[in-house]
């Protein structure tokens, strides 16, 4: 083969190889915070190459995975129990390849310009925890990106380790709001028996100074919690308003974090193609 | 240059050229329908090549256009007046390149399995018109894909031509529902003075047999309609329920089509990165 041809082929192969194996870390800010601990993003998963964009890959698999993901985010599909099996690769690449973080509303939109604050000390922002303030991605990456049914026992064991990771975009929003005098309130479907490990995990990941941490009562039978998430969360928001607080914002990864009055003056729906909570 | 190298280059250039100029038609079913007219999709726009996927292109332009689009669909950004200038190409390719149609919830999800019908003749499905039942894409393609401010005069002139096109996925849903005995109701922010041309346009595009066509009162000053779309549309839905009808479904391209009780038992949010109506 002539030199030029070999050179072109070499260039092509080099480009292909460079995309072949990437070890992915969660993008994490290396900031010192309250506890003085350094935040190090652990290695999660080695991705295989993504040749072609998501739609093409999905179409080959017979499911338009990016359309499915959009339907999830626009709340057109709901009550689903697992990610379509053919979308495991698509969802994995979406979650680990940077796209997920780029889609975070706290990175793609700017809350501050529309945020008119009274500065009266009664203004709060409601934060969901899982897949909003903390990410369980290391767990899901090990378990097929939720193409299998949810296993409550395994997941609770993982949560009990207290090793979930901060979502850097949410933590940035959290800290900015604290600076602006807005009080953070965590409102989560985690249960009261998980309070201690949740506090530990939040502190480890650089969250501090919250006003309240509201968890579900610890009634827990066969993976089912009493009452819907919408009823629990909107009820707790109502209590906060009844106590004289103004919910200037509300952020969560599930529509059940957002829907149900009072929603909050400004709402953010974070992407989550991994699971649905009604 | 050696033969092999020239051959490789030629192959590369051929592949590049094949993507270079594509004349795009809206995907339209060529079905005979009520009026017996054939539906022909007109040529809208010649697309320039899309090298790299949307995210890459957007990142180069300084705006993550696909993240912006997701934020629109998840209702994280609202009240916006125009598409970011750097996203014109991205939005154009999205709308004309097939992705938009693939994202239509009536093509990506199946309403029938979750649709439990009483078959009592009182079941209705609410359809929005613009960008839901009919598409104004030919207009927007000529006007920079809404990277410029909305011009009410020009747009109303276009609507008055009665030449907007059926969205084939919605028309398919519409016909399926008619077969199932569900009565279609059009509910639109178009005004009463546009009733005749709207009826003509809907018929031309293969819609027939609707129960009601509900338009806004023809009060129209400087492009502003009285009252919000949410108030108007939820009010009309309430009247329908008060009259004894059950809204088994509700489909629209704007969150203002969906939000506000009574929403309907099943809601579908169609993609729309072109404009926002609050």
TrEMBL record, chains A, B:
The domain of life for this entry's organism is Eukaryota
Name the InterPro entries for this protein. Acid_phosphat_B-like, HAD-like_sf, HAD_sf
**Alphabetical keyword list:** Signal
Q: Where is the signal peptide?
A: 1-19
Q: Does the keyword Signal apply?
A: yes
Q: What protein does this entry describe?
A: Acid phosphatase
């Amino acid at each position: 083969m002539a030199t030029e041809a070999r050179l072109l082929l070499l260039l092509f192969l080099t480009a292909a190889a460079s995309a072949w194996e990437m070890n992915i870390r969660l993008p994490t800010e290396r900031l010192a915070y309250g506890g003085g601990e350094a935040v190090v993003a652990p290695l999660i998963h080695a991705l295989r190459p993504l040749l072609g964009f998501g739609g093409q890959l999905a179409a080959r698999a017979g499911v338009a995975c990016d359309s499915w993901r959009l339907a999830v985010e626009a709340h057109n599909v709901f009550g689903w129990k697992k990610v379509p099996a053919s979308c495991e690769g698509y969802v994995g690449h979406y979650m680990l390849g940077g796209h997920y973080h780029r889609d975070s509303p706290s990175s793609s939109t700017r809350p501050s310009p529309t945020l008119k604050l009274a500065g009266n000390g009664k203004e709060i922002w409601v934060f969901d925890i899982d897949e909003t303030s903390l990410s369980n991605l290391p767990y899901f990456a090990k378990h097929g990106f939720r193409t299998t049914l949810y296993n409550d026992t395994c997941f609770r064991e993982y949560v009990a380790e207290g090793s979930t990771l901060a979502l850097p975009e949410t933590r940035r929003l959290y800290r900015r709001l604290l600076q602006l005098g807005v009080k953070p309130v965590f409102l989560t479907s985690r249960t009261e028996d998980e309070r201690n490990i949740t506090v530990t995990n939040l502190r480890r990941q650089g969250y501090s100074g919250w006003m309240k941490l509201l968890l579900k009562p610890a009634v827990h039978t066969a993976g089912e919690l009493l009452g819907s998430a919408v009823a629990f969360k909107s009820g707790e928001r109502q209590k906060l308003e009844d106590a004289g607080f103004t919910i200037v914002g509300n952020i969560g990864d599930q529509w059940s974090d957002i829907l149900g009055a009072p929603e909050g003056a400004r709402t953010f729906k974070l992407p989550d193609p991994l699971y649905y909570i009604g």
